[in-house]
Amino acid sequence: MKEVFQKLMNEWLDGIGGGRALKTDLYDEAVSAYSLIPLFRQKYEHIIGIDLSFDVALAAQRRMTADQIDWRDAVVADVRRLAFKTDSFNLVLSHSTLDHFNDKKDIIVSLKEAFRVLKPGGLLIITLDNPSNPIIFLRNLLPHRLMKSFGIIPYYMGVTLFRSELIRILESNGFEVSESTAIGHSPRILLIWIGHILKWTGSGRINNLLLRLLAVIEYLEKLPTRFLTGYFIVVRAVKR
Fold first, then answer.
1. Which of these, 128, 118, 74, lies nearest to 92 by C-alpha position?
2. Whether the Cβ atoms of residue 31 and residue 1 lie closer than 8 Å to each other
3. 128: DSSP letter
């Protein structure tokens, strides 16, 4: 998944960079198998990551320090009430942050805050769960406790937006949407199984075959059906 996102960011940020960037949560840096901040360190002079949880922010800072990544700005903050000045960032990266709220009103408030702290001409790149994906749709109908017991979703998943709905809200709040797509076309349960296999097997050949399988599945992004097969919608918007 990191490679897929990195490829997309290389395309969407080609020739763009400099100034300050804000990442709206630190789960990836604290807990998951990959961190997104290193993808942006060469393009932006100053990167700040925020998280509502003090423990997550601290864990992210410690983990990245242990990995010898030159980054220290982990801040405890609420994405709905950002403690930053207006027009202070060149990029806001919101990667699967806003789809953990109970109410869509919180998503709208957060998008307005992202608009406020962005400089004119600044970029918002936002990723949300894709409710047009049948698996996501069915998953959201099931109790979180059940999904957690099967090890599929270890954390709470909240409401999300359809792509058309997200674009409409962004444009009505001053953004100009320049790009949108869907990524993550490999079924999550397949990713979990492959992740376990990669940990258990010592065979480099098997590992390479599995990774190539995932890469082939990601070619679904090029098809017209990508907004049905992708787990995430990704939108690139510019502050007017």
1. 118
2. no
3. E
The Cα 220–Cα 185 span in angstroms is 7
pLDDT grade for 154, boundaries at 50, 70 and 90? low
CA angle 185, 189, 126 (to 5 degrees): 45
- Beta strands 20-23; 89-95: pairing state: parallel
Compute the distance between CA of residue 215 and CA of residue 87 in angstroms, rounded to an integer: 38
Q: String of b and e for 143-156 (b: at least 16 CB within 10 Å)? A: eeeebeeeeeeeee
- β-strands 118-129, 89-95: how paired? parallel
Q: What is the CATH number of the domain that holds 122?
A: 3.40.50.150
Residue with more model confidence, 219 or 96: 96
- Between β-strands 232-239 and 175-183, what pairing exists: parallel, antiparallel or unpaired? antiparallel
- Residue 152, by phi and psi: left (phi above 0), alpha (psi -120 to 50) or beta? alpha
Residue range 69-104, pLDDT digits in tens: 666 689 999 999 999 999 999 999 999 999 999 999
How many domains does the chain divide into? 1
Q: In which domain, by residue range, is 228 found?
A: 2-239
Of the candidates 93, 123, 116, the one whose C-alpha atom is nearest the C-alpha of residue 14 is: 123
Annotate 145-193 with three-state secondary structure.
HHHHHCCCCCCCCCCCCCHHHHHHHHHHCCEEEEEEEEECCCCHHHHHH
Supply the pTM of this predicted model: 0.83
